[in-house]
Records
---
Amino acid sequence: MIASPRASVLLSGGLDSATVLAIARADGFECHCLTVDYGQRHRVEVDAAARVAAALGAASHRLVRLDLRAIGGSALTAGIEVPHGAEPSRSGVPVTYVPARNTVLLALLLGHAEVLGAADLFIGANAVDYSGYPDCRPAFLAAFTELANLATVAGAERGERFRVHAPLLELSKAEIIRRGVSLGIDYSLTHSCYDPTPDGGACGDCDACTLRRRGFVAAGVPDPTRYGQPKTE
Amino acid sequence: MIASPRASVLLSGGLDSATVLAIARADGFECHCLTVDYGQRHRVEVDAAARVAAALGAASHRLVRLDLRAIGGSALTAGIEVPHGAEPSRSGVPVTYVPARNTVLLALLLGHAEVLGAADLFIGANAVDYSGYPDCRPAFLAAFTELANLATVAGAERGERFRVHAPLLELSKAEIIRRGVSLGIDYSLTHSCYDPTPDGGACGDCDACTLRRRGFVAAGVPDPTRYGQPKTE
């Protein structure tokens, strides 16, 4: 019996990365998940990641804490207000952009993969809904793959080739949801909201909630998201 | 009067990165330092970084905490013994190799630079004493520069070009020390030891101490390092 190849999967606890984990499992990988808590406001997302890893049969799940607030520059980590009720930005860079985020996350995922002996990295980067993020583009992912092969003992010394998989790259939110439902994901376990309510529910009208809600509508799938009670001022 | 261009300088508190900061200052940059505490054993190095930043006129100094122990795989972050009294490794990868370390550190430095509007990144990578580390090689640094220009809003949207400076890359330890002394660095402020004694002094015989001691001898410069009292078993 041949052992399954190992994959290192970046898991945020959101809808996208849960779908990536299900795809990696369906592709036959033994999946080792890494969640990075980079000081984002929504710690509830980290709890969601643990639920998702367990539900989708991950072989291991590790949490790395990284306090990106010391660098700042983003509404997700600094004291900048998250926009509510606005049309999700389709051009330009959203204020929720975290400087060099995917570079940092992929670098950590690469270290995780090297320790595990995994050559396959999975990330939920998406070029459709997040067109404003430069680090969600195919050219960025190709450049990171080049870097990975030079950065590591596995790549530079032993000639192993890393592969960065971004299976959601060209999918709309509705297509992601339909794919995940076909793989049996219970999306009520996932959390996408940038600004959860005090009871841990989704706010329903930040960019992430709006994209997610519209995705379920467009996919023709009932939305299992638990929306919370709004804050009282 | 033209403002000095900003540089983002990775500062560990060791001899090499202190020299890099002095070089960047001498090159006319307004230097903003970033120290990453990645759970290494020698927290005394983080204190050294603060002393060095102040002494060498850094414009700012930020500390990012990143718990790499969750990933493991290195004697500097996991429960692996640091070798003492052995000949420093000249080939092969030392056990003190941290998986994807320079990729992670440069990714954080890139985020720091983007927030500051700095296009120049300085790192103390060295290909002479650390020949076993793939992420200290020119090809790695060139690949990271490519990545930086694709990863960021500054690079991908505004066409700014990042530059990764590794001014120590081809220097021996003795050459680094002579360069630093010529720039007026007080190396007693710096800390290199992988395994400091309980009183915060240098152990004198780990790989880092051995390379450092030999460097001062070869440079013909008195060694100002404070060596500590050895541990009693």
---
Amino acid sequence: MYDNFKFSITFLRNGYRRGIIATPHGIIETPAFIFCGTKASVKGISPWQLAETGTSIILSNTYHLFAHPGSEHIKNRGGLHKFMGWNGPMLTDSGGFQIFSLGHGSVADEIKGRRCGSSTLLSIDEDGAVFKSYWDGGKQLLTPEKSMQAQRDLGADLVVAFDECTPFHSDKKYTEQSMERSHRWEKRSLEEFARCDDGTQAIYGIVQGGVHADLRKRSAEFVSEHPFFATAIGGTLGSNKTQMMEVVEMAMNGLDKSRPIHLLGIGGICDIFQGIALGIDTFDCVHPTRIARHGGALVKAKYRDSSQREHINLKRSQYKNDDSPLEPDCDCPSCKIFSRAYLHYLLKANELLALQAIAVHNIRFMNRLMEHIRSSMENGTLNEIKEIWC
Amino acid sequence: MYDNFKFSITFLRNGYRRGIIATPHGIIETPAFIFCGTKASVKGISPWQLAETGTSIILSNTYHLFAHPGSEHIKNRGGLHKFMGWNGPMLTDSGGFQIFSLGHGSVADEIKGRRCGSSTLLSIDEDGAVFKSYWDGGKQLLTPEKSMQAQRDLGADLVVAFDECTPFHSDKKYTEQSMERSHRWEKRSLEEFARCDDGTQAIYGIVQGGVHADLRKRSAEFVSEHPFFATAIGGTLGSNKTQMMEVVEMAMNGLDKSRPIHLLGIGGICDIFQGIALGIDTFDCVHPTRIARHGGALVKAKYRDSSQREHINLKRSQYKNDDSPLEPDCDCPSCKIFSRAYLHYLLKANELLALQAIAVHNIRFMNRLMEHIRSSMENGTLNEIKEIWC
């Protein structure tokens, strides 16, 4: 397995590292950020804009595509790469995360431990999970085998084993039982993956175990003992930033460090710096493109007030007459051409272009951040550049 | 006046012609299509995408920008070119058309003689028109002088005299009175234009007169006798395609043909061919970008069923499994990368990218159409290529 994939660690110091993940659709220099193209499209952004802004990898969500248009439909169209016109590395998740978190509020609520409402999950047993389709309300069953088949149909380079994303508010007993079932599901995922392996894909195992050090360690060891290509740290990461990093550290303890390590659903700038310090290689989050749709532009610390957290809200009246670009030193087309005043106006006028222009900047911002992080490692300036970006 | 502007007719045969309009922001090869960036943005399309798809000129609407964010705000931002990041030729209309047609249904209803509902127009007298702002419901007054000042603030290369867009259902008596007032308003526009002329702008006069041959002739003569740089044919063009071209012909009769001639609000492919045969140089319409937002893609005759009129509706289920591009011979990025099946899926999934992808194609389609029309003139193949496009 994994003949067409390779992970090379090219630099290592104090636990943080640079590397290269080679896939059949190209390489990913790590640390890297993976942009969310949830429903086979990074919202409002074309594949050529992604490429022009230095994006190396995107992901799509199996849950969404399974419900509509169906993974088989995409297979019949030549697979997800061809269907959506993205020819670079791609990852699909297993669908588990959305089944267990959608309907509980935002998908981020789960990871971040916020309390949730009603669920789209109808039942869960040893076989898999039955849920209500977001698309047509119909009942759908996802099992480890079905998830792997769907991901095979989609054809992303990197796929993820099917697990239960245990809610934050579960007690330790449920978290342990859920983790053990996730381990059995991951084994079944791996078996199904191996059964149909044709060399085009590589699979991630997922570490669960909630906020409990012993469970996280057991889960990390489970994943490391099985022949996954890479590891993702999933499930709840606690209710605050400090706990988040404690939980990541717990999971890292038992992990095989020769494999790529992905931290699921985390995309805050400070969080990324903390994750990198712990040895995380890749991150994903809807954050950069989602905030763009609400007028949020990511800017470095010196381009915002100290009261603003990692981004500025362009809808605020303070930008009405601001003729400066989002960031004077950014090389994205939006910064080269548009002022904050114009973007403010577009948002007020409900003009579609605002969303695209800000998303293009935010994507370029994240890619420049990761470029800067990678180049700073060998210089030993990771802590210094954190001040610039956070 | 007009030292920085020039119109050269480079080819003339049987009444149709090629030419070049030179402006301070570059040249427009005619016949040309002018894309609508109503509120200082071609909906969902960035200025660099416009340039990449061969666009030579866009327009913005004074009515919309006057209400929000205000022409003075845009002046303070450095003018419309700088504000919206479009560095090529640009036209603004006078605001008159929207005052008299918005609230009557779509802005196109007026030209095309469809009956209308309530109006945003509150009153009209010799001074100008009082209307209700679409932005905040406040009362606003637009006069010839105010329109010219607003257009001066906006700073487009080409500006248009303020007129009343006489409704189709007016009787001849009202149409004549309205036309005469429009003539007085156009004279005042020209005086106000000359008073502040700094060489950066050139002004169009507008021919009114409804569907009445004698009135159209008088109006064309009025415009031709006054030192406008160019002429626009405005007002109602009747209730059907045949009448539309009859009315255009009436207006053309009395016109000074050494000036550029624009046909306001017309963008159907067959209509463009008919207009060109009568000697029209430029056209504008929201059509190509508006239909894109509803899933309508412009394709040449051989790429659609004979039942479809000039465009295909990608929402239709017949495109679900259609792996071909919108047009196999189109060089736009959407046609190079996306299939009809993917665009169909994006529309069904309400993904923003659909609108942008189809609009990019439609803009390129219109620009390729105009390129083909220009090159066919000297070959004498204008009638033959009409079969390809219509």
